[in-house]
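Question (not urgent): is this output format expected?
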Amino acid sequence: MILKLIILAVLGYYIYKFFGGKLPTVGGKTKEEKKLDEDTLVECSKCSTYVTIKESTLIHGKYYCDECVDTL
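Got this back:
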C-alpha cells in the first residue's frame, strides 16, 4: 500500500514537471525574479530621468537618481 502511494507521488511529480510546473521555492524569490527587480526602471522624482532601481535611491517613498541625491 505504501509502495503504491510512493510510486503515485513520484509519478505525479514527474507529470507536473513535464507540463512545465514550477514548485514553490523556500526562501523567497528566484534568481530570475531578483534580476528582474534590479532591472526595473523607475523615474527620478526631481529630473524625470529613468534609472534602474539598482542605480536609484529611495527617499520618503520617492526614487532619485544618484546625481540628484548629491544635490539634495
